[in-house]
Every structure is written in structure tokens, then in C-alpha cells.
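Appendix B, Record 12. Input sequence as logged:
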Amino acid sequence: MSKRGPFIVIEGLDRSGKSTQTALLLARFEASGIPAKLLKFPDRTTAIGQMIDSYLKSTSELDDRAIHLLFSANRWELVSTIEQLLAVGTAVICDRYAFSGIAFSASKGISYEWCRAPDVGLPAPDLSLFLDISPEAAKTRGGYGEERYEKEEMQRRVGEVFRRIGKEIDGGGREDGRWVNIDAGKEKEVVEGEVWALVEPLARGVEGPLRRLWTDKLTI
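Logged structural output:
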């Protein structure tokens, strides 16, 4: 059986360096001659993504549960694309994924289990890297505060939910991925090196079928 492409997700608080590190990781793949595709969630180019973009820029208002479901639908829009890319050996790198959706919505007081439910069955990353940075440090970075969720107390609550997700993904012998925390307060080049050291063993392909997130939570 030929190897499929690896599915890598980079998560983190706002201004933790996700966009920078996903771009650097893509460049590493390309320099190694390995086909790779970078996806960003939310994908603001789709019809659903445009609604999300308007909400994040505070130019429209939506119920907290409604926007959560739109974020989830935005991910499901691209499932077939992810599966097709991986099947032909292309690495898929995601800037944010389902874990962000849960973290931001649960931090607003919505049930963690309710937030997780719409994403049950999504493709599971082979590796999820969480760029961990304190809200205080993130505030010092350019552009902080331009979007709805970039408030210090909100980011603190989001970080707590991310840590819960990490324990859930990486604990108890689960089969839906591996979660690694990375100190994103370090120099950009240091973080880049740590990311590549974790990704490189998977870079040239992964054996076995694509797994699914939280299939043990299915109720039907």
C-alpha cells in the first residue's frame, strides 16, 4: 500500500505565529521536493467563509451557536479536498482546525461537548502542534486587537480550553492524532526548527488510512 500525505495542523492563540510558521513549514516541504498544500481556517473565500469574515470583523452579529456551526460547516466544505490531496501523497498543512472552533466557542460558556459534536468524524490530523504563548506576550505583537476575539481575558479562557483538548487528544491511548505543545514565545527561527523536527519524520508519507476525530463520541 502506497503512503498517503501527512495531515499537519498548527493551532494556537491569536498572534502566536501560526500564519508565519505554517508558511515556513510549507517552504520546508517545497525545498525538500515534497508536494504540500496550505489551508487556512476559516477559509474566507467560500460563501460560508464570507459570513464568518464579516462576523470576525464585527461588521455583522450572529448568535454564538450559529457562528460555531458556520465555522464547523466551513471545515466540512473542504473535507473532500483534504482527502483527495492526502490520497495522492500531498501533505496538507492547516492553519487552525476544529480545535480552534471548540476552544473559542467553549470559552464563551457553551458546553464543551456541544461544541465538539459538529466536528465528530472530521479527518484527524497526524500531528497537531499548539503554539503556546501568554496573552500578555501576544499583545505585544503587531495587529493584536483588530478582530473580535483578540482580547486578553478571552485569549486566556481560549488557552485553557486548548489545553483540555490537548489532554483529550494525546491521552488514554486514543487513535485520532498526536498533540504537541511548542513554546511560541521563542525566536521565530527556533520555533521553526522545533516544528520541522516534529514534522520531518512524517514528511515523506504516512502509512495507514486517514483517521477520524472523536469517533468514540458518535451516538448513532
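The chain has a mean pLDDT of 91.
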